[in-house]
Amino acid sequence: MSRNFRRASAAVLAALTAASLVACSSEQAPQSASGDGGATTDTITLGFSQVGAESGWRAANTKSIQDTLTAENGFELKFSDAQQKQENQIQAIRSYIQQQVDVIAFSPVVESGWDAVLEEAKSAGIPVILTDRAVDSEDETLYESFIGSDFVEEGHRAGEWAVEQYDGEGMKMVELQGTTGSAPAIDRKEGFASAIEGSDIEVLDSQTGNFTRTEGKQVMEGFLQKYDDIDLVFAHNDDMGLGAIEAIEAAGKVPGEDIKIITIDAVKDGMQALADGKINYIVECNPLLGPDLADVATKVVAGEDVEKRIVVEDAAFDQEGAKEALPDRQY
Length: 331
Ligand code: GZL
What we know:
Elements: H1 3-24, E1 44-50, H2 56-68, E2 75-81, H3 86-98, E3 103-106, H4 115-123, E4 128-131, E5 145-148, H5 151-166, E6 172-177, H6 183-196, E7 202-208, H7 213-226, E8 232-235, H8 238-250, E9 260-265, H9 268-275, E10 281-284, H10 290-301, E11 309-311, E12 316-317, H11 319-325
Parallel strand pairs: 1-2, 1-3, 3-4, 4-5, 5-11, 6-7, 6-8, 8-9, 9-10
Antiparallel strand pairs: 10-12
Helix pairs in contact: 2-10, 5-6, 7-8, 9-11
Beta-D-galactofuranose binds next to helix 2 and strand 9.
């Protein structure tokens, strides 16, 4: 469906809605903001709702989106930071609908609770693209495409490495989970658990650190007080792993030696800790989603077909690999 047809049908819908509103209240009809703000007709107005600024990965992801969806690349980007709150994302998406943007994109902070607002975007004729994280909606017509990594595979790769290195040593581990209810936390936990099944690695405890360094440190402090035999930490992202390092060192133990650490993301700070021997293995989660988002948004607005699922490829690094890769890392 072309952008002009969609806009025309949305305008008719808005006019009918306005007429009904005027009939029963003095409220103004929804104002269409975009289009007369000086943007050319070829400019794609994209409303993006970002999870927040909780980690180094998120900062790199935001930079990729803002560096790519620029005016010179044909975009007018409306960007909002939800501070890791779903209600803020829903509010931002409703605002983009009200502004009648050409396309909406967002990284859902959690998997559930999106159907209503996605139905509103669909009724307004505004296509939606998911980046980074998935939603658990049954109705796949609510979004055009999902661009992001395979989190189950990331967790499985981390667990496979743990089994290769440590199976048979009777190791006891703790897990620092990502944000409760988020796709990466759910899937990475599943992937890691499936990989260590049948090994003698024992999970002592698992708790969310909400993908932040501060909360990762706090949870690890609690684990160290509760258990005196932790051999391994699996953290769902580098930032929580870096927080765990601080807690382990404060407890007088050596991270990467007394307590091994495996994380996911491979952002610069994590890769530096890996090169320094404080982390033992990192599975990458590529945050540079801006170019794929720009490509899919352009095709969607032009009414072209797009792939429903675009999987971003990830690498993995041990300590030697980190030393080699660090000089060229983009994030
Ligand atoms: C993964 C992304 C996760 C990162 C964290 O795609 O959603 O959220 O692994 C970030 O660092 O906070």
